[in-house]
Predict the 3D structure of the following.
Amino acid sequence: MSIELKNVSKKFGGVSAVHEVSFSVNDGELVALLGPSGCGKTTVLRMISGLELPTGGDLFVRGVRVNDIPVQQRNIGFVFQSYALFKNMTVFKNIAFGLKIKKWKQADIAARVAELLTLLGLEGFENRYPHQLSGGQRQRVAIARALAPKPSVLLLDEPFGAVDAKIRQELREWLVHLHHDLKVTTLFVTHDQEEAMEVSNRIVIFSRGHLEQVGTPREVYEQPVNEFVARFIGVMNVLELEVRGGIARAHELEFPNHGLPDGQRLRIGFRPYAVQISTNLKTFRYQAVLRHTYFLGVLLRLELELPSGLTVRARMTKEEFAHLGLSDGQSVSMQIRQYRVLAHEGEVLRPEVATTYDIPVNLGEGI
Amino acid sequence: MTASTQRRERTAASTRSTQESPFVKWTLIGVAMLFAGVFLLLPLLNVFVQAFSAGWAGYWGALTDEDTFSAIKLTLIIAAISVPLNVVFGLAASWCIAKFDFRGKAMLLTFIDLPFAISPVVSGLMIVLLFGAQGYAGEWLQAHDIKIIFALPGMVIATIFVTFPFVARELIPVMQATGSDQEQAALTLGASGWQTFWHVTLPSVKTGLLYGIILCNARAMGEFGAVSVVSGHITGLTDTIPLRVEKLYHEFNPAAPFAVASLLAVLALVTLALKTFLEWREHRRLELAPPPENLPPPA
């Protein structure tokens, strides 16, 4: 186990920024700390590095409790969101800084810096100053500088926050490759769920200082433990249902009552991929009109409007879309194949209660 | 109407909308130039003209006068003590103001500006009231045979007080703009607080610091009011260059006061030149550094 947090808390003044967070990161893993801004994820990263001290709980790095070990001695590589390169030093001196501090021999420093320059594709840039580099190059220098003293753990704060969308994509792939080559345990902070899903082995999801879920990208997408995760990861249609006549209803949509008596309410969610669409109005039980189509590349997102005015988001591949010959304004029939119960009577469900339910396709009238 | 006349008219219109007529422009420039010439340049030139009114020999004689020489020495000693102390103070104050949040930060900022707001004469008086024979610490100082007022220590204290804000005021905005990311990065790379200060903080504020030192030094050497109150004007002992100039002037000496004053004038010109050079260098470093795409590709 590379990093372990046990009930770690952080209060700034009276305000709780991180509340009793526990999770662990295995050797060589690439883990994302994901959450909306202000959720405490950067604070967690800074506490692991030692730049911030926890006000409660225990922090372990490679089995050693590091709460009382100062930042200088933790041997953790930290890449700042702003990169924080030393402006008055060349690329070479930036990367060599940590090695000089650790009193490496001149020749060893030169060899290590050369190795990192090659690894990060920065050969020939060693005599430039940070202001003579592009954003992407600066970030690579920052990563090289953090890696130089061979840290036990690499921490990155919003590594792709400051670059434009196109370079972002390249950097994501590049980080995955770098991690694959180096096998250094890596933790990065992001507010972008897509980025977290794409890059990491596992995701740690935070909201308002609390840890919501830890899991592989697939787990958090398919088995979100609560409504926050369900809504935060990917797109989800959320409906507030009321049980009437033994059936849970929202507008014209009907679902099983899950044993709840009439008058009770529950909240369910379903992913766009769980919505089935047919151009034959008799295939599925609900009628809808295709209001708008968003092209996302290989996938398309469809906005369906039911007669009551309720909007449902669906998705399909370009091929399916072409095969069905759909166009905006067209009438279709639809069905929800799978959904999750998120809450009963406004009370958020515990993970073991929030399970996924499959609806057999085309069960006609009644459930 | 042809295209070219159209273009000419448009150019004329745009000139009219963004610029004043040449008459207004040159009148304004003339007024500014005249003002600067009469009130700034002319008096400065006059100092040098008067200084050399007795010829090179007279000039040299005035400067090498024993008492004048001791005044120059004292001025240098005072500057050599007070400037470094204010550098240390300025660095400490700007560091804590820029990097930390603490109670009383706004008050500290205000206090740093205090010497700018107080008349130098009052500053001098405050020191006399504190350390003078009738002052709070007077008896104790006399009992221990420590001389502060009418001696070097008092003059150094007065100079430090008056030049207090220069270094700190220059450094605070620079340090605030730099933030603490670079220092934190140094810490994660294993650097101690002192190594971080020496290798990261200091180089990044170098220009601002030099700038502050130059201004602080100019004021330390040129200060009159506060130093005059605490010096006691003992010729050959507690006269600084400005005090010596005043004394010579009151002795109705024709060229000597101007000769000595020319030293201060030269100091002022050197200060301005250095300041301009530093600004130019900083501007060139920041603004004119080639952007990455204009650099030759690395070998």
User: Anything to note?
Assistant: Residues 362-367 of chain A have pLDDT under 50 and may be disordered. The longest helix of chain A spans residues 165-182. Chain A is about 25% helix and 35% strand.
